[in-house]
Amino acid sequence: MLTVTSVNVNGLRAAARKGYLSWLAGSPADAVCLQEVRAEEHQLPDEVRAPEGWHAVYAPAAARGRAGVALLTRREPEEVRVGFGAPEFATSGRYLEADLPGLTLASLYLPTGEAETPKQEEKERFMAEFSAYLAELRHRAAAAGREVLVCGDWNIAHQEADIKNWRGNLTKSGFLPNERAWLTDLYAPGAGGWADVVRGLHPGQAGPYTWWSYRGRAFDNDAGWRIDLHVATQGLAARALKAEVERAPTHGERWSDHAPVTVTYDTAA
């Protein structure tokens, strides 16, 4: 079995002060993908930077205090790569991948965007570059007999079932028609060839949501978005056994505005 967790920590140092380390110590995961780490390695306390029992690799952003992704794996990766070949985003701290036996695992933090602003234009440039890379990655992995799993904060809710207040967000970044169509194309059989693992295990239901705004009573009312995804090649997706959003019991017990998304795969199938 292979258990993988993905979580946007909303600042790793802050998360560590609020309970992240206790959560990690109790996690059954074989690999953990982190997003929005923000801190550089030298800024992290040793127990956070290199927790016992884990191999940790980081891809910080050149812009201090922003973005940053990381991978924690129980076994040492065979190879690690930062970025996906797009010069504009080479030092953005938004993509990191590692090769494990038979699997390429990646941590992604796709830009948030803001409708009708330069931030949205940046997000759309990222999406265009990244979809081209994903097509190349999928074909390269298939030729090598490998599977691929891209976990992270994709910052797009694909369907109405993926966002509680979808009617109020039709013109907001994260639920724009072109963003949703981009994911639809990614999941298209044969063409995109990727699979939304959690949706495959939980078809037809609202959520399970993974992010709730700190504003108002969004968490208490479960007014969330499902934007933290496991996106896998079809072979691996077919071997997903169970998925869980590790939602905190109460608002006060949260150590991030996102919840960890944990999926177990049968790698022996």
UniProtKB/TrEMBL annotation:
Keywords: Hydrolase, Magnesium, Manganese, Metal-binding
Pfam family, one: Exo_endo_phos
Positions bearing the site annotation: Important for catalytic activity: D228
Active site (record annotation): Y109, D153 (proton donor/acceptor), H258 (proton acceptor)
GO molecular function, one term: metal ion binding
Alphabetized InterPro entries for the sequence: AP_endonuc_1, Endo/exonu/phosph_ase_sf, Endo/exonuclease/phosphatase, ExoIII-like
SUPFAM superfamilies xrefs: DNase I-like
UniProt key word Metal-binding: yes
Protein family: Belongs to the DNA repair enzymes AP/ExoA family.
The protein's name: Exodeoxyribonuclease III
